[in-house]
Design a protein that fits this description.
This protein is α+β, with helices and mostly antiparallel strands. It contains ten helices and 19 strands. 30% of the residues lie in helices and 32% in strands.
């Protein structure tokens, strides 16, 4: 049998190739194992601490270990941020309806679940295209933004700036076409970073003591009616008004080929002409430290938020969970949200129905294991 130190190093090398949860399962199973390659937990702990009679603690971004001595045995308490290891996310997208044409869904979404590689966050994105080539813009963003984020060290401001430059140099016509972008980066220090450009939205749902869900916003919709957004646009030469006199949402108006065009948001990617009059591609960044009561994150295009409030979405998710907080399906929840949104749209109009895209990210709780030896 190889010396303990060599076997420990070999074990560490094997661990790097698998998810951290499976590592702990391997350690646990080695307690009673007779296999030659397994190392008893007591031997590992004693080698690490080199102090059989002292308490020992180590903390990392996603794992903490506490070793406490007792009169006859020692206890090892292992706490794991399990959401990093088995992130559960599901998405659903439904095309809308527009009069007189076969409509192409302009929404897109992307998800990168980095569950195997420690140090890499998981990334979730929703894009809502607009304009003649909005579907092309959102599809392009879906294809390139995950890679750009990784290359920029997950710096969302830099990444969106690179994305905008990439669109401007591409063959895609973005003169009057663009898309929104809401991104949630789930980091391994139990922090969520949300970057938002436009009027797609992110919320987090928290479980209250009476087992109901409440919604907490993780982003702000970028509308021309907001005072700070309005100020920037007006100072850049843009004009803000509703489409039909005083009725309807405010839009940013600009001239394009002797035609007056309006955009119903104050930030976007793409939209070359709108950006000349104050529309910005700069994302607004929000941070949230994951708390024990956090249940899930919902990212969605305005096809959901135009017909359901944050609190109504919380109620719909709660209905889908049906009291089973330990074992519910994020994909089913996302499908449920899109279907319910479509039903409400059809109740409002049969000719003008927006695309609906929802991405639900289930937040797994911390897990604690105790081994006595």
């Amino acid at each position: 049998m190889a010396p303990l130190k060599e076997r420990t190093l070999a074990k560490k090398r094997r661990r790097r190739t698998s998810g951290f949860l499976s590592q702990q399962i391997n350690i646990n199973s080695s307690l009673g194992s007779k296999k030659e390659e397994d190392i008893p937990v007591a031997d590992i702990v004693n080698e690490i601490t080199n102090r059989n009679d002292k308490a020992y603690a180590i903390k990392d971004d996603c794992v903490s270990i506490d070793i406490s001595p007792g009169p006859t045995k020692r206890s090892l308490m292992l706490t794991i941020d399990a959401y990093n290891l088995s992130t559960s996310a599901g998405a659903s997208s439904i095309a809308g309806v527009k009069p007189g044409k076969d409509w192409i869904n302009q929404d897109n979404y992307a998800q990168v679940d980095n569950t195997e590689e420690l140090g890499s966050p998981s990334v979730y994105m929703v894009f809502d295209g607009h304009g003649r080539f909005g579907h092309v813009v959102s599809k392009h963003c879906k294809a390139v933004l995950p890679k750009i984020l990784a290359e920029t060290g997950y710096d969302q401001e830099r990444a969106i700036s690179v994305l905008q430059s990439d669109l401007e140099s591409s063959a895609i016509d973005i003169e009057c076409s663009g898309c929104t972008c809401v991104t949630a980066i789930v980091k391994q220090n139990r922090t969520i970073e949300v970057g938002n450009v436009g009027d797609s939205r992110a919320i987090i749902l928290q479980r209250s003591p009476n087992n109901t869900l409440k919604a907490l916003p993780l982003s702000i919709d970028h509308k021309p009616s907001q005072l700070d957004e309005r100020k920037r646009i007006l100072e850049t030469g843009g004009r803000i008004a509703s489409k039909h006199c005083s009725a309807g949402p405010s839009r940013v108006w600009f001239e394009y080929n002797n035609t007056t065009m309006g955009l119903a948001m104050s930030r976007s990617v793409g939209d070359e002409f709108a950006h000349r009059v104050g529309v910005s591609h700069e994302p607004q960044i929000f941070h949230h430290k994951i708390e024990p009561q956090d249940t899930c994150i919902v990212l969605a295009s305005d096809g959901l938020w135009d017909v359901y409030s944050n609190d109504e979405v919380a109620h719909l998710i709660q209905t889908c969970i049906n009291g089973n907080y330990a074992d519910w399906n994020a994909k089913i929840a996302a499908v449920f949200l899109t279907k319910m949104a479509r039903m409400r749209w059809e109740h409002i109009s049969t000719e003008h129905i927006d695309d609906v895209t929802c991405l639900v990210i289930k937040i797994e709780p911390q897990r604690t294991f105790q081994f006595d030896f």
